[in-house]
Automatic annotation (TrEMBL):
Residues in the signal sequence: none
Organism: Nitrincola iocasae
Annotated NAD(P)-binding domain residues: 6-182
Top-level taxonomic group: Bacteria
InterPro entries associated with the record: NAD(P)-bd_dom, NAD(P)-bd_dom_sf, NmrA-type_oxidoreductase
One Pfam family per UniProt: NAD_binding_10
Protein's name according to its UniProt entry: SDR family oxidoreductase
Length: 286
């Protein structure tokens, strides 16, 4: 059986949807803190097991009989290394055959503040005795699409990425890569994949594509990291999220969100979703 952690999240759900195209539902397990949040998956025949990264006893129960595990990294920055340790420990005790982990693009060298906890988890996996696979996911295109309504309203796209190239891909692209690894198994043991979009763009180019698709004048305004952070807070974002986004944009200016190896499309066997295509879909929902 294959267990997907964080199955109520946007990435986890897409992984399960894709797995259901290839496997019987009873071979798929959705691991979630609150089982009621995935009642629709249970109705489709997927097994649902309660598990909480902070409760080791729940992890032991959830991993009983599991051969393959997709550990989707926790969203609780600052607590993730400990939470991931708990899952790895439970996987060792359960005799899990393979653990695939969603890490960060170039985690070993990334300047992003997000990278440190990923490095800790990767290091633990490599000495765990488990058959591990590192899925180093790049930036989600959806991270920038979230600001699309505001950019259209004000005619300005703000950030602090400078001319940095961003090779983002959609959650669906990253989900497809995870599914490939889970279905193919042993051929991916002890491999590290740097996953990013086939093409890249600067935020100025992103603003220009918005203009091309909508006819509305949208220009990119590059701010300092501090000014960008403060602006995000002033419009209502939590301070920790504003700091994360500002740090990530600064990282982008240093090349942290770029990779040109096209390992993602090679892994899935299809091109990654283009920025233009993702934008068109997002505009249809506004």
């Amino acid at each position: 059986m294959i267990l997907i952690t964080g199955a109520s999240g946007q990435l986890g759900r897409q992984v399960i949807d894709l797995l259901l195209q290839s496997l019987p539902a009873e071979k798929i397990v959705a691991g979630v803190r609150t089982p009621d949040s995935v009642s629709d998956l249970k109705a489709r025949g997927v097994q649902v097991r309660q598990m909480d990264y902070t409760q080791p006893e729940s992890l032991d129960r959830a991993l009983t009989g599991i051969q393959q595990l997709l550990l989707i990294s926790s969203s609780e920055v600052g607590q993730r290394a400990t939470q991931h340790h708990n899952v790895i420990d439970a996987a060792q005790k359960a005799g899990v055959t393979m653990l695939a982990y969603t890490s960060l693009l170039h985690a070993d060298t990334s300047p992003l503040g997000l990278a440190d906890e990923h490095r800790q988890t990767e290091a633990e996996l490599k000495t765990s005795g488990l058959n591990w696979v590192l899925l180093r996911n790049g930036w989600y295109t959806e991270n920038y699409l979230a600001g699309l309504p505001a950019a259209l309203e004000h005619g300005t796209l703000i950030g602090c990425a400078g001319d940095g190239r961003i090779a983002s891909a959609t959650r669906h692209d990253y989900a497809a890569a995870a599914v490939t690894v889970l279905l193919e198994g042993a051929k991916h043991y002890h491999k590290t994949y740097e996953l990013a979009g086939d093409t890249s763009y600067s935020l100025a180019e992103y603003a220009d594509i918005i203009h091309q698709l909508t006819g509305k004048n949208v220009a990119y305004q590059n701010l300092s990291e501090t000014d960008y952070r403060n602006t995000l807070i002033s419009i209502g974002l939590p301070e920790h999220l504003a700091e994360l986004l500002a740090d990530s944009d600064t990282g982008a200016s240093q090349g942290a969100l770029f990779d040109g190896s096209q390992q993602l499309s090679q892994l899935t066997g299809r091109p990654t979703t283009s920025l233009e295509s993702a934008l068109r879909s997002a505009l249809e929902k506004i």
